Amino acid sequence: MQWIWPLLLVFTLTSCGGGSRALAPVGSYGYESNQRKIARTPYSYTVKKGDTLYSISWRYGMDYKELARINGIRSPYTIYVGQKLKFRGSTSSTRTPSSSSSSKQKVVTKPTTPAPKPKTQAKPTSQPATASTNSSYTGSQNLQWRWPTDGLVIATYSNSSSGGKGIDISGKAGQPVVAAASGKVVYSGNGLPRYGNLLIIKHNDVYLSAYAHNERLLVKEGEVVKSGQKIATLGRTGTQRYQLHFEIRRNGKPVDPQRFLPKQ
């Protein structure tokens, strides 16, 4: 029985630490925010069904316009299943040689057939990765941001490489998720690891926003939405608690959403 008394003493001291429980501070919940790291950029990527140029560039932290330029893809940025996308620009070896150097090359080389051109975009006979989103969208240059849902911020943005690249907002299952600004839906699906059911909205040529872990997605790719329009219901797909993970990216790079959202 003697061993019981030390345990009771520890329990009593612990219980006397205070009658009320402090609220958890706003900050990272460990595995929740660290799961959504920007993936390391590969040399190339093979397009899968459901991909869009926006979702691929989002995954690797690139500006979609730069990825399109490298691969010779024009607006409205249609890509095809099986198409290989490069993430590096062409090198100096692709420059056109001068007239003197080209004449020297003719002496030492005897090409019988022209060299094949590099394939930067799959032929239209391939199956598009997603349905066409019609024409390009420029959007407004004067965005008025609003909160995408109601709730407490339980994880904040971090500049560190291992930190969260957006904010997490707690909520109840099924509560409305709205567009933080007017724009066009450029991705609607669950193909990005650890984001669950995800929406990406293009607001203009500079800003994109993302809404992750939704229960249901209420808009499709190509739809133009207004600020405050209901676009999804809050859920916990790809995570372990009901929350909305919200990101804003400027020219492909994550920025702190709370710098743009109105003060609560």
Give the key terms:
about 260 residues; alpha+beta; Membrane-bound Lytic Murein Transglycosylase D, Chain A; Glucose Permease (Domain IIA); 10-stranded antiparallel β-sheet; two-stranded antiparallel ribbon; 5 helices; 12 strands
Structural notes for this entry:
By secondary structure, the protein is an alpha+beta fold. Among the domains are: 44-86, LysM domain (Membrane-bound Lytic Murein Transglycosylase D, Chain A, Roll), CATH 3.10.350; 153-259, Glucose Permease (Domain IIA). It has helices at 4-15, 31-34, 53-59, 64-70, 99-108; strands spanning 44-46, 84-86, 153-155, 167-170, 176-178, 183-189, 197-202, 207-217, 224-225, 230-234, 243-250, 253-255. The model is unreliable at 6-34, 90-110 and 120-125 (pLDDT under 50).
SSE blueprint:
Elements (H helix, E strand, L loop, with lengths): L3 H12 L15 H4 L9 E3 L6 H7 L4 H7 L13 E3 L12 H10 L44 E3 L11 E4 L5 E3 L4 E7 L7 E6 L4 E11 L6 E2 L4 E5 L8 E8 L2 E3 L9
Antiparallel strand pairs: 1-2, 3-4, 4-11, 5-10, 6-7, 6-9, 7-8, 8-10, 8-11, 11-12
